[in-house]
C-alpha cells in the first residue's frame, strides 16, 4: 500500500441528514481536485477499452463533529496554510454557484455557519488541524 505525505480530509457537521452529508462531501472534494491537479490519478480503462474519468489517487478521509469542531478546524487549517474548501448552511438554500459564492462572501469567516469543510496539505498538518474531529462512522 502506498504511503502518502499529503492528506485529503472532509469534516461534516454531525447533525446533517444523510443526503446532505453526501452532497456536501461531493461539493467539497471537487474544490480540492480543481485546486490541486496533482492529487488526480490517470484515467481508468476497463478490459473492453472503455475509458473512465480520472479520480483521486489517494483516499479521502471523512470525519464529523459539531459546529465548534468545524469552526476550530477551519481556523487551524488556515493558520497552517492548508487548502480549505467550505460549505455553509446558507448554501442549501441557493440554486447555483454564483449564489453559493455570494452566501459565503456575505459572512465574516469566523461567523460562517459551516456544515462541512475539506482540507488538503501535509498529512501531519491536516491531522493537527482536525484534532477533535471523530472519524465518520
From TrEMBL:
Superkingdom, taxonomy of origin: Bacteria
Pfam families: DUF2000
The protein's name: DUF2000 domain-containing protein
Species for this entry: Catenulispora subtropica
Amino acid at each position: 500500500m502506498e504511503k502518502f505525505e499529503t492528506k485529503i480530509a472532509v469534516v461534516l457537521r454531525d447533525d446533517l441528514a444523510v443526503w446532505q452529508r453526501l452532497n456536501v462531501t461531493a461539493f467539497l472534494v471537487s474544490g480540492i481536485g480543481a485546486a490541486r491537479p496533482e492529487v488526480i490519478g490517470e484515467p481508468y480503462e476497463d478490459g473492453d477499452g472503455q475509458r473512465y474519468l480520472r479520480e483521486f489517487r489517494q483516499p479521502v478521509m471523512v470525519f464529523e463533529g459539531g459546529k465548534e469542531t468545524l469552526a476550530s478546524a477551519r481556523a487551524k487549517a488556515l493558520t497552517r496554510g492548508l487548502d480549505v474548501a467550505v460549505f455553509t448552511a446558507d448554501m442549501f438554500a441557493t440554486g447555483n454557484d454564483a449564489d453559493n459564492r455570494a452566501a459565503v462572501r456575505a459572512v465574516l469567516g469566523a461567523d460562517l455557519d459551516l456544515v462541512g469543510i475539506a482540507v488538503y496539505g501535509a498529512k501531519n498538518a491536516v491531522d493537527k488541524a482536525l484534532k477533535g474531529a471523530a472519524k465518520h462512522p
